Amino acid sequence: MVEKRLIDQVLRRIRSGRAIVRFWDGDERSYGSSGRLIHVAADAPLRLRKTLGSASLAFGEAYVRGDIRISENELDDFFWIIAHNQGAVHALKPLRRVYRRERNRRSRQRDQVSRHYDVGNDYYRLFLDSSLTYSCGYFEHEGDSLEAAQVQKIDHVLRKLRLEPGQRLLDVGSGWGALAVAAAKKYDVQAVGITLSHEQLAGSNELAAREGVSDRVQFRLMNYQDLPGADDPAVRGPYDRIASVGMFEHVGRHLHRNYFQVLHGLLTPGGVGMVHAITNQMHQGNDAWTDRHIFPGGYLPTVQEVEGLLADEGLWSIDRENLWQHYVRTLSAWRRNHQENHDRIVAMFDEEFYRTRDLWLAGSKAGFDYGTLGLAQFVFTRGKPTDWPLTRRGLYAQAAAGGPRHLVQRVAERAGSSVP
User: Fold this and answer.
1) Which residues of 386-420 are buried (b: 16+ CB within 10 A; e: fewer)?
2) What is the pLDDT of residues 74-116, one digit of tens each?
3) pTM, 2 dp
4) How many helices (H) and strands (E) would you count in the chain?
5) What's the angle, vertex CA 305, arms to CA 177 and CA 250, rounded to 5?
6) C-alpha to C-alpha distances, 74 to 41, 78, 184, 212, 259, nearest whole angstrom
7) What pLDDT, on a 0 to 100 scale, did the predictor assign at position 219?
8) CA–CA dist 64, 351 (Å, integer)
9) Bridge partners of residue 18, in order along the sequence
10) In what helix (H) or strand (E) does residue 191 lie, and over which residues does it extend?
């Protein structure tokens, strides 16, 4: 059979790690000779033709259906073997190039966002921290909890923006609102957050009301492209500060230039912005399985792409930090929480939904741990500043000294979690 012969040819290229594979015809074979060991039961052939020849799509869908069985505990080892045997992976390149990824068009963006985020806030409460911060945490100490890391990440972002009382802050892709509300409470700024998710909008408005900042923070269901022409002057800008955390990945490569043009137009002269985004060391399109089942229309840029766009659009690149190690820890915590809530998630949806999200969490963690993914925080200004600090020393000194307790800490305390 063609599928079995193809799989056998690829697995024979394994040099690091071991795989014991039982095929659908009862044949069992061992590949590799040393290193991490995985056990794979292939109960049916991969549907390469039905998945447009994409190996990623064929494997992911077969795993979710249960046609390929790998223990959850061995998924990390599976991705480790892939990362350390690129010769075998490259043998599948002709297949991976066949899949036609979903186009990121403005008319589709709300639906694309909704397909991932609007599955219900109760689901996200099962594995995120209590503030529902759905982006990389910041682990200042070895033993930091997920709650502490998300408190510290928000503080880290806000310190980099150099906020001052009375300023106007825009949060592009504001999630469930924790950053904008924290900024209003801690720095006394006027904040606007925008999202394309109905569930996030509802959660954000509830948070602002609960924390007593609805007079200083407003959230809108709108596309960033609509901000310059918004009817409400309080929304269309300009803004002294702009944050965009974990949203740029959804913009789509062909809209990157437009995105930075919009940010440039919304920033006041001398204004400060930050884009916190997953980056890829390689120029390549969105993974086929991820594109179909997790983040349709997404794209992970290289650092060079982002820096080039900043320069092209008249934005001065001030600072860049790579927090890839922090995303390894964040994803590990999310996946652990997700697995602990297996029964609840299956009751909410079904086993295939659970396996889809678990596979994605495992693969994402591996991408940062062993693969080509990074997490960059790009800080930039509109125009070259004349008063920027000479070193980062002040940024980290503030973190070490601590500061006033604020929103995210209290949210965690209400949930019964301890935040140092």
Assistant:
1) eeeeeeeeeeeeeeeeeeeebbbbbbbeeeeeebe
2) 999 999 999 998 866 666 554 444 445 556 677 678 888 888 9
3) 0.91
4) 19, 11
5) 35
6) 12, 6, 44, 46, 40
7) 98
8) 8
9) 32, 37
10) strand 190-195
